[in-house]
What does this fold into?
Amino acid sequence: MTSTTDGKRLEAFSDGVMAIAITLLVLDLKVPPHAEAAGNTTAHGLAAALGHEWPSYAAYLVSFLVIGIIWINHHAMFTQVRRVDRAVLFTNLGLLMVVSLIPFPTRLLADYLTSDDSDAHVAAAVYSATMLGMAVAFTGLWWAITRDAGLLHEHLDRAAGRAALRRFSLGLAVYGGCIGLSFVNAYATLAVHGALALYYCFDQLSTSAVSASAAEEQPR
Amino acid sequence: MTSTTDGKRLEAFSDGVMAIAITLLVLDLKVPPHAEAAGNTTAHGLAAALGHEWPSYAAYLVSFLVIGIIWINHHAMFTQVRRVDRAVLFTNLGLLMVVSLIPFPTRLLADYLTSDDSDAHVAAAVYSATMLGMAVAFTGLWWAITRDAGLLHEHLDRAAGRAALRRFSLGLAVYGGCIGLSFVNAYATLAVHGALALYYCFDQLSTSAVSASAAEEQPR
Amino acid sequence: MTSTTDGKRLEAFSDGVMAIAITLLVLDLKVPPHAEAAGNTTAHGLAAALGHEWPSYAAYLVSFLVIGIIWINHHAMFTQVRRVDRAVLFTNLGLLMVVSLIPFPTRLLADYLTSDDSDAHVAAAVYSATMLGMAVAFTGLWWAITRDAGLLHEHLDRAAGRAALRRFSLGLAVYGGCIGLSFVNAYATLAVHGALALYYCFDQLSTSAVSASAAEEQPR
Amino acid sequence: MTSTTDGKRLEAFSDGVMAIAITLLVLDLKVPPHAEAAGNTTAHGLAAALGHEWPSYAAYLVSFLVIGIIWINHHAMFTQVRRVDRAVLFTNLGLLMVVSLIPFPTRLLADYLTSDDSDAHVAAAVYSATMLGMAVAFTGLWWAITRDAGLLHEHLDRAAGRAALRRFSLGLAVYGGCIGLSFVNAYATLAVHGALALYYCFDQLSTSAVSASAAEEQPR
It folds into this structure.
């Protein structure tokens, strides 16, 4: 009734979108204008000008880690997948839309992080909302994949699957809380997003969630 | 006489172009200039400035959906294809040209949608004409693939193939109508393109068109 | 002595670079500034402003065709290749460098085509020189591939190989002539590049050059 | 205990990021503004304006070679790899972060190379530091791959592996020295980076390091 295909092209297209989004981040690292061109009479020099742009580097670093970890988890998730159907294609497209959006809130936050007024809070909230959208999209993709056992390799550890879903829910709550934190302190919000990214780097639970199927050598 | 190859690299190149086109859309989401830099004495703030750019977000969303659905349908189409020849390579190149163009009319429409004068109509017409070009290119690619049974897997449902061609023709008529609508109301035109994209998302006919070959497990 | 690998990743990397270069071309299609913002008191409107930018569209079209045909010929060439060595990797890297450069002379020519003075000639010459570089790089890649029979599938038609090399030489002469033509008429130069691209589209010789190996079903 | 997967998607994602980073370099080759628009009364012409931008071309060329050689060595390295684990995924992500950063120091150096003051030294030092970071990341990836024999194909030449690690250490020292050289002469620093890239092009040691496994036909 429903048509399914193997996930090779979905993986290739997803790899492409995520590789581009993660690489486009560099376009927002701006070269400071020459002092004379900027009408800048006090000679701070290039080193100071670069140091002044630290919010750009911090936002770049956090967003790079976020997209990199999304890719690693997407990769781990699809080692469990044998076939994809249209629901998986569309929830995956939703995830890709959020991922490809990330450069926008990244440059917004880099631009407004050091603003004195409420603009920094707004920028941090937009960034946090994007991350919440990413968590929602990831949870939706996980639901689409696990709702039909026929889409999965036989070795799925169902308890691990449910544990992963619980952890996705926790992620939703944390990212939701980041939106609130944005209106308190924009710097702290970016720091929390960085800490979350590092946490997911060393997260062993998500590893064990895929180990049942991936630890043995699959002939893919 | 004519040379054919399997379609793996055509799929890889197409995935690349579509992944890049869909991700480049984000470059046209502009960060609003700081209020003081813009010489803006009335303090609207970042939130209002972002809200003011809603045409960019609407155009981004519609174009993302359009390219995403083109990819999904391209993917579905090529599950039926066993071999490609030069005619398929060149009609596919034509489709990729239109897809890679999409970011241009998208930013044109985002920039001019709220213009008071006839410029909004022109921008909407250019956007609609690009979508018509996309529908023409897709129809041409379908023709190139189905004109030679030797290019297809054996399981092609020919009635479904003819139904798909009829539906492509309908698409041509609808997109042609959008060009006319552009000169009446630019907002309505963008809304219709969004509705069309959503319609294709849930379109079951195109699913059934590929189910004959794809529902069984192909050893590709 | 020399190490060789199969060409899968070379193809994947080349597909990526060519897909990106062909898609980046769209970034140089500029949205005309709003009439009031441009300090333009005479109301030409968006349609006239877009029409005024026809050199951008012409240059986009020609460069898109050129990169698309490079990809198709690269694809045809590598259906004959069984193994790649370091000489192939580096001559291929040279070709990719020229391909990834193409967006630069394209926007240069688009910007200066309608200049009255000698700048249009210079821009056309830079464009033509890039195309000459592309032809040189393609010839070098073909030499690297065909210099060692061990790199090829067994079915190479060696007469066709020599014919292809002769045709590459002809291409070098034609592109060299385009540099001279640039200093006579920039418009004619762009038209010749477009005609050359269309010629290669319908070129049957290059098809026959690969048909010996590709016409039968290779288990790649 | 630890989960591993084959490295196909890691290679695909890495190919994507490196292909994009190498192609984005072209965005920093700027078309000179028209003489009249620049308020330039003395008619230097386009040819002189292009010649004036030679630092952009030099930086483009060196960075293109650097990323190209990283790709070739990455490719050679992964012909030895049978399985990847999370440590390889993350050290590879670190390498990709440095590679995707390269367009930023490239345009920084292109912009400031001909500055009279100390800014040229700072720009060259940032460029050199990025190259050092690349060498560190490459060494880390090599360590992650070779620390576990189970990740490798059986044919690893361990002496060659240790020789490669020694050579990586030498690379670290040379790139570290380039940071110091930056504060003496920025032009010489760029020239050394170009010479290093050319040296790695013709480097036979890294070839022999992979020849043990790759010279025979692997059924990958």
User: Anything to note?
Assistant: Residues 204-220 of chain C have pLDDT under 50 and may be disordered. The two ends of chain C are 26 Å apart (CA to CA). Residues 109 and 123 of chain C are 5 Å apart (CA to CA).
